[in-house]
Amino acid sequence: MQKPPDHAYPTHWEADVVLRDGGTARIRPITPDDAERLVSFYEQVSDESKYYRFFAPYPRLSDRDVHRFTHHDYIDRVGLAATVGGEFIATVRYDRINDQGLPAKNPEDDQAEVAFLVQDAHQGRGVASALLEHIAAVARERGIRRFAAEVLPANSKMIKVFTDAGYTHKRTFEDGVVRLEFDLEPTEQSMAVMRGREQRAEARSVQRLLAPGSVAVIGAGRAPGGVGRTALRSLLESGFTGRVHAVNHAFPEDMQRLQPEEVPAVRTLREIPDPVDLAVIAVPAESVPDVVRDCGEHGVQGVLILSSGYAEAGPDGRERQRALLRQARSYGMRLIGPNAFGLINTATDVRLNASLAPRMPGAGHIGLFTQSGAIGIALLSGLHARGPGDGGIAGISAFVSAGNRADVSGNDLLQYWYDDPDTDVVILYLESIGNPRKFARLARRTAAVKPVVVAKGARHNGTAPPGHAVPTVRVPDSTVAALMRQAGVIRVDTVTELIDAGLLLASQPLPAGPRIAILGNSESLALLAYDACLTEGLRPQSPRVLPSAATPDGFRAALAEALSGDGCDAVVVTAIPWVGEGAAVSPADSEGAALAAALRTAAEAHPEKPVTVVHLAMDDLAETLAAPAPAPAPAPAPAPAQSPEPAAPARDEPARPAGPTPAAARSAEPPQPAHGPPNRSRPLSPPGPPPTLAARQPDPAGDAATPPRPRPAPLRIPAYPAAERAVRSLAEAVRYAAWRREAAEPGRVPEYDDIQEAAAGADIERLLDRLTPDAPTGRSVPVPSQDAEALLARYGIHTRPVLPAPDPDAAVRAAARLGYPVALKTTAPHLRHRADLGGVRLDIAGESELRRTYGELTDFLGSPEELRPVVQSMVPRGVDTVIRAAIDPAAGAVLSFGLAGAPSQLLGDIAHRLIPATDREVTEQIRSIRAAPLLFGWRGSQPVDTTALAEVLLRVSRLVDDHPEVVGVDLEPVVVAAHGLSVLGATVRLARAPATTDLGPRRLPVY
Fold this sequence. Notes:
Structural class: alpha/beta
Strand order of the largest sheet: 1-2-3-4-5-6-8-7
Number of strands: 39
Oligomer: single chain
Helix content: 25-40%
Strand content: 15-25%
Number of helices: 28
Largest sheet: 8 strands, mixed
Radius of gyration: 33 Å
């Protein structure tokens, strides 16, 4: 079974991974050129670790050892190394063995012995766990199904690596050695373990960027102005609690401090004696590589690159960006940018504004990520206008604008915000989605515990902005929107809608249903709100119109009455300046302030129901509602007791908006210490225990299984200048709450006893060998019709027989074989499924009619050679539908359903779901198209068998999910009758599966 030693180097095994402490490492195959690296690595391993690896003292590697550990055939013998800065920090290797534990000779042997060695300085960082994921994927690719490992009982850390991985394993003890055997087939538990490790590692890497103990601004000029100096000024004016250094190679050698900021000034990072956690880089693009090298050598944990001149500048800039990413990751650093706008953290113990924003935003509980600096400015400005200051309705917890986002992306922020107790709502502005499969997975999990609101630019031209070197999604934007809705994402279209929806979700509880009460002192404004509710699919009650001179007390009483009613799930209050004789409020109050106080009083009595306000010409009302509610007057101090308790210190923190769960402020949570190599193994300042952001580990299924809990009293109420904006935001909250309730009882992917998965896999392998002997991975080929029908039958999807009719006599013989009545159809690509062009003739009852129809068909549309006619038996009448499944290289596997015919295609009336689809998702998919009434007895017609239709959708989903080589399935038409259905046409496309997918071992993307 041994292959030539010069077997092609498997480039696709290379991967960048995030480790447990948030740093990165590169995993790659070991080559003969690594001999010196291997020897150097081994010299830095302790004697104890060497003993655990070889079961005996082994002070150094012999030349024979070095040759054996660096020469592999990449099939039976494979070695992988984890590297940082180009040097080994850990290795893993496997050797294929037979049942007796000897080197394998038989190609059928599917077991291998695996062994690890991790440098002591890097133990505890999760390196071995990451290597195990990757070596297991490599082994599966090479036909190995089981690993065996022998470990000394004292080597508890390595035993834990194996047993905690989630694979099915067997453990025995013999001759003083623990022998572990485990299957490499991924299990639900192993996938959950891998996803959990991925989330914790990537969240930690973002936390290190957002909570640095020290920051160096590289490129801060001596004169005011410029990008570097602006970033430095923003950092200082925000009240950053850590250390700050200004770095510029042009500073005079005797310069100690930069004036007037009084910031320590140095020419290079090497002159800074203390650790630097974050480097803000604002130098010309051609100077960035030297700066990044200095950062890596100094042990900087992350870099924020404000410099432009990368992928947005054309092909040369794109290559420069890729080289920059490789360089940063080689040192274990995460990178924000290039061409970034910056990042902000409003936590009181951090107060970081490492951005070009002119002011520090107010502290709050909205997490904000953008890919565009201009949109970032617009969002920050819009939020500031709606609720300035700490504790206002529009306060943020963190902000990241990633520019070209070569590394850190929205997916990383979703990992961080998932269990961040200071973030209640996530807002994302995206212009491209580099890994949509992962995005959908992370968004679904995050949306199960907190709202995720997304606006996407560059929706219609099918290309990403120039700076975003990502795969282009070929599916329409409507499909992307549908997949986002399936994942629980709140999709909006504009920046204004982002802010509108975010403010309501950050300040109000989720509505229990769509029943909306409307009240106010303007009938016209109330009717506008009523119409908007109907447009959005809500169920509004008849508006309650108060007198135009209604006082704040009148509003309070009306709101309290509406909230206390059982038939109301939310309230929209409309208000205009009241008109009437006499003062409605005291001279000391404004109209808006008085009305705001009244509305708050009523809302606080019913914290389980959301309230939103529509106002005209009452800006003071909106400002007062957006600000934190005044603190209640202190109660009279009780008489001192003999042993009084010490008074609790005042909490200098913003008022917390209503959230899914109360959470402590980050100010009480020191950043988690890093665990890295010697020059990086230091705590972020100040030192302390791990943050409690990981203390609450919500399980998506568990959280989703619990109905939304009432939030604390809504101290702030969102106000809108237009009824449609308020109602649209409320409708998004209603739909999101319904998704949360449905997610509480997730559907299941059914098991069907008649599915022949293994036989289908063998068929696919034979077809690929026959149809694609030299085709590159990813290029799809159509499957011949008979083979396609046989493959579908393996999954219980049976198509009606079709017989070719190259001439009238052949058509007559085919009809006699099938039995009359029959259909005569053309299969030419330009006429396929085009009954409107006359290419389909139905209900042919006899031979003479068939011959006449055949002649008409060929006379009008072309020769038989061009038309390729076929004969098929008639089926019971029903509704013609279309079922498709396709794999987009970026969006993943998508299941689509709609009615057959031009109207559905013209109107885009197609419903999409991600694969694998559950029974609940498929049922909802069928009902979600606008033409669905045709399936359920519209205008007195007989309802059709939607249960059978759902089963076929689920079987197609299973086929594509079980076999990634199936990249396209098209069933058209599927005629759904009152009882059962008939699949009249089917096509299948196959392609060799890519080596890595989102289902494989965790890895950072490379664009």
